[in-house]
Amino acid sequence: MEEDASLFPKKELLDNVPLSEDEREDLEDPEYEAEFLPPEAANSADLGYCCPQRKQSTDADKSKKRPAVPDRLKACHLRKTWSHLEKLREEKELFIQKTRGELRACHQRIDSITKQQASVAAEVAAGKEANNTSAAVGRLQAVSRRLCMELDNERDMQSKITALLQKSENTMWHLAIQEGQLEDVRKSAQEEEVTSRKYLREQVAKQLHKEEEASEKIKRNRLLRVRKSMCLQKDHVLRHQKLVEDAQKNHRIAVKFLKASLRRIREQEKEEEMKSREHMKRRMDAVLALKNSITANRETLRKFQAWSQAKADLAEQKAQAEKEMILAQGGDAFKQLFHQRRCEELEAQNRTFKEEQKLRKQEIINQILKEEAEEEKRKKKQSSPAPAMGQAPLREKTWSYITDICEGRDAVALPSFPGDKLQDGDRAEHPKASQFLEAISSESIQGDLRNVSWEDDTLAEPEIPGLWKEDYKPYQVPKEEADRKPVDGTKMDKDILARTMEQLRSRVTHKQVVSGHEFKGRPFNSKPKLIHFKDFDIGKVYKKKITLINATYTINYCKLVGVEEHLRDFIHIDFDPPGPMSAGMSCEVLVTFKPMINKDLEGNVSFLAQTGGFSVPLKCSTKKCTLSLDKELIDFGSYVVGETTSRIITLTNIGGLGTRFKFVRASESYEMDLSQSVMKISSLFTYEDKGSYEKIIISPSEQQMEGNESSPFDMQSQKKELDNKEQEEGHPTESEGVTVTTVMTIPPSEEQMEISLGEVTEGEIGPFSSIKVPVIFTPVTPGTIHSMFKVMFKNQQCPTLYFRVMGVAMDVPVWVPKPNVDLKICMYDRLYQDSVLVHTRSKAALRLKFEVCKELREHVELLPETGYIQAQSSYAVQLKFLPRHSLPEDAGKYFDKESRVLEAPMTIQVADQIKPVGFTLHAVVTTSDLQLSPSAVDFGYCTIYEAIRTQVSLYNHSLLPQGFGFVGLPKFVDIQPNDGFGTILPLETLQLDVIFQPTKAKEYSFELICKSEINRSFKLACRAVGIHPPLELSHYQVKFAATSLYDTSVATLYIINSHVSINSLIHSVPRIGSEDAFPVGPTSFEFLLPPDAPITISPSVGTVSPGKVRKDTVTQRKDLRRQSFSTLRLQNRDRLLRTSTPLNTELHEQDLKSNSDEYQAAQATLARSFQGKFDKFVVPCVVAHGDTKDRKGTEPLSFSPHNTLYLELWCPAVAPSIVVTSNKGITTTNFGDIAVGHHGIRKVSIQNISSEDLAVEFSVLNPNGPFILLNPISKLPAGETQILTLSFSPHESVLAQETLDIITKRGTLSLTLTGTGVASMITCSIEGDVLDMGYVIARESVSSSFKLQNCSALPIKFSLQLDSLSPSRSKGQQQLPQFLTSPAQRTEVVGTQNHSGQSVFSVIPVKGIMDPGKAQDFTVTFSPDHESLYFSDRLQVMLFEKKLSHQILLKGAAREHMMFVEGGDPLDVPVESLTVIPTYDPEHREEAEELKPILVTLDYIQLDTDTPAPPATRELQVGCIRTTQLSPKKLPDLLLPGSCAWPASPTSSSSVPQSVEFSLDSSTSLQHKGFTIEPSRGSVERGQTKTISISWMPPADFDPDHPLMVSALLHLKGDVKETYKVLFVAQVVTGP
Fold first, then answer.
1. What are the angstrom distances between the C-alpha of 843 and each of 748, 814, 869, 870, 872?
2. 1127 pLDDT exceeds 50?
3. Which of 538, 390, 389, 381 lies closest to 460 in space, CA to CA?
4. Residue 1424: enclosing H or E segment and its boundaries?
5. What is each CA distance from 1523 to 430, 1566, 1615, in whole angstroms?
6. This prediction's pTM
7. By C-alpha distance, which of 442, 479, 448 is closest to 357?
8. Could you count the other beta carbons within 10 Å of the beta carbon of residue 1452?
């Protein structure tokens, strides 16, 4: 007992038990530890061997706390120990029960074995008493021994089980003792648990009370927030109302201004139309004038032609006269005339050459002058020093030239270069610039100032000292350099250079393709996108940095090309090429701008990337003055006379240039001094050659403007016309240092003092600033007051700005500040409210009565109808508008049915006032209807595995946007987009997708409810039929991975038949709607693939049994059939168009075949340029009841169109990484016909067309197959080509095909290997492969022929061998002779051979080659040299010296004489013995002749039935051998006179007879014995055989138990006589 108790020590039971998750959380919870327990729960348990005692604490504070952590841990361990003991006890009880059951089973087996032993012992005793055989007794004894062994085993098992049971019971006792020891502890723990629960309930009650108090506090706070929000909402409503009023007021102002603008625009359009008409008229007049001019020119040309003809005739006559005169003088007229003509031509050439030289010199001088002017201009900008002292300024030279022109002198040419000298007298006469200004009048300036070149007036000094001295000699341009082409080159040179640069860049750039996607677009993104230098100053330097970001897919390069030609003098680019840049990387470019002219510049900064060029736009903007007003109309509204109000108008300058402004009335005249601006412009023009001719200052005496009659557009047009007129008349456009004053005289109009401006009406406005000017309205007299103001600027480029001011002065005591109440757009049956505010200026209270016109009293209401307004205050009346559907009929003239606009007058009657106060109600009334189209939707038949989508149109008839939503949707319906919720705009139509997916098979009829935001409902009726098909697919959508061209992707699909029962109470059964359930049984399916789809499903047709699953394979293979076909047609068409020889038009229309070389080449080309493709296919799968095997013939199954399943396939295709470059890109390698046993070699070239190196793997070919890859590779670099060597070695005659997959990480390239193994098939004309040569007389020979036919497509090399000549035959001869072995073991095919050692059989030819389809004749010769019946040999036909094709058995027999007998049973072995056959002399042959036996056995089959059985029959063959010896009849004919006699035969002393006679003796006695022999005698001719038929019927006295034996002699007579003893053995056998 002590040892058992030590197995479970208490400490281990308490400490080793793990804590549960809940208890661990309780221990770790700090809140749980901080709570208190009642005093009753403050006790602990003692874990000693004595019973636990409770201890109560005397401390009041400690009694309120919960037990300490050690006590809680002890209690927790106690509970764990108790639960562990309970678990062990239950396990031991279960184990004891099982052990007792095994013990009972062991007892039963022991009893059974004991009984069997007793029964076996009884049987053994009984057997011994009965003296039975010892085998039975031995068997019983063995059974008894086995039972004894089993009994011993069972007893041992019983003892073991008993011991185990005793041990388990002891353990149970120990567990019971320990449970008894822990019982008190458990009870105390339960009490503590009850106390803890009670404490927790108290704590929960307290916590609940706290939460209720907090909830009450939250409620109070919420009510406070609600009150506060209501106050805020009221404030918000007031602010909103004020904003609405302001918006309405602004709207009215905008409408008025819009009308005025539209009126002004129409007037402008009319003016433009008038101008266009005048322009058209001028053009027509010009065309008529041109026509008249052409007619006059034609007349003049005709006159000139007639004059030229007359002159030519006169010259010819003169020449003829000179010729006659020369001839008359005796000279050579032809020589004289020729010499004269040559002289004239030479003079003409000299004149032409001089003119060309003069023009060329002038061009050179102009070019030099231009270059010098540009050089001087650059020098002027750098510095402005005083001119050299020793040389007259260039300005004085210019002024001297102008003076000469003005005084009427002859024009003196300007110096061609700065080094030219002027005469001293001329230099002294030239006046100075100031004197010239005093002497010349303004008219002379206007007349001749256009000839003055201002760019010669400069104060610059040369960069090189002494360059401008008088003794400086300029560089003379050599003649060869003067004849050169211009520096920039001709236009042709520029075009050639541009094309060359384009070609060079096209070679540098190339396409970038990554992952099958070609990059297209801008290679680098600029940040910022535009380089903008705004508001620049001349002489300053501006710098900006831009960032170029690589936007391509991979590494790229960037190179600076430059800026455009006109920007090179001002823009400098600092760019350090960063080298290769990865995608997303950036580099910086520094752009430096140094302005030298005051002009806007635009252009591009060009760069060159690896994928192409790109440019960044560049813009340089000068300082400009851009002025605008914030409003063009100021409407003060209605004010009472005597009040004063003001508005602010803002003048804003958003440009970088400031100016002076002034606000004046449009009717006032003003003056503005422009001298300072003109001086600034003139000084600026000094440094800018082109700017002096771009801006025009108008003369004061030639410009006038009328005040109110001209608008800003009129002034601009008048200014343009004056400018054009001045330029045509030759007036100057500007002058230097002259003060110009612009005066505008406008007729004054009546001043309106009610509207005035504030104190600030003029001043300076700086760049990027604004000025606010107040406008004051002080009405004096009632009525509407208008006034026009303008803003004039000192900068002539700034146009005059206009704005209007208006206001209304009123003197009525009661008025409505908003005479128009606009409710905007309203809907029928909806209530709209607004507040109408009424003001009074009266000093007494007034009674107001509000009236609505009688037509709208059912729709509009003013509350209250009567009210009193206090003195100088306001009064608000509530306007309620509830439009009914009868509004169009009730309102009458106040409602426009087309525009749906309501304008209703409202009246306020004021006491003691005759004229009422009115205001107008404006509203646009619209409907709130939403229309669903169609009104009903029929989804038709739909399976539970799919969804049907249909489109529904939702139209909004209202002029307001409306929110809508489909509510209460059933689970099987979904509406998209946005789940059927959204907002529809006015008069808009939305397309909604209604998706129906049934959940079970039934007929659906439901309504979809669409509710608007005003809670109106619109219904859509729907119906459908749900179908539960008998089959289901494991996947209804298959997404293939990206597949390369000519590659294959495979996906697995399962077809499930879960229909095993028609009991609808257990599960849902397949059916169509509410029809009968689908019958249980095998169900067939068929996938209907779309035509020309690169998809195969295997199997596509099949049957699935109930409860079974069928596996299908879906295969995708991509090709380019359609693309290659169209491309080939285009290439063929282009090739035909380029051919110069005439071709047949049918070639353009021919269709390329898929197996043609052009077709395959086009496919390979398109595979390289393939960009990717995505196809989506939907494959229907029809379902029918029944098995496909049960249908009759080709009768189709009855497929239901409603039980159709649909499979969606996503098929993406990408470009291949590896392509075949050999054989025009064909991936199929055909080895052709190869003979079996031989091999063929083919080479295939593959190329990596991707941009990265690829590791290559190959699929495993069939190890026992005919194809072998001889040189596998492991890596294929980018762009390189490798050659694969393939071998085909067929082992049999078969069409072989395998697929070699070239596997890379980017795809798989499949090579199809095909070849035909052609067997050497030949046919033999010998049936049975046995050639029997028959009987031959010894030492003679006979020949036979046969044919071998070559049935294959290849030539065959053959050879024939005889086994008798085989080298291996010598080994077989060393074994035992064949006749010593049994017949079953005899395998020797070589029989008797000639004694001479020569082969008895021979064949020709022995070897050769048979062509395809041809036959070969063979001749076999049989030449025996002695008598034997067992000559044999085997002829073997070998092909290609390897393959055995045929084995032909050759047989033959030889006799010494010409007769022979065949038939009967064999009596000897077919092999000759080793004994020597004696040779008899022919003379003594008859004496030595003995009878030859022939055994004929006849078996009569006796049947059991009464039907008589047929007789037993046998046959004997008697033959006569054809011989070469002559017969005795022919012998005398062959003997000629004087010739010797025919030699005698060595085997016969007599002549050879013509036939052989035979006879059978004892035929009578044989007949008595039941034998019938036909014929019994006869003769046989040479080469013939005759059959002796023998039949036997048992005689009546025949004893079946003893066979009948009878003999007879058969005599043969030919060249010799032979006798055979025929032994007949007859017996009766029983039939089956």
1. 42, 11, 11, 8, 6
2. no
3. 381
4. none
5. 158, 35, 12
6. 0.39
7. 479
8. 26
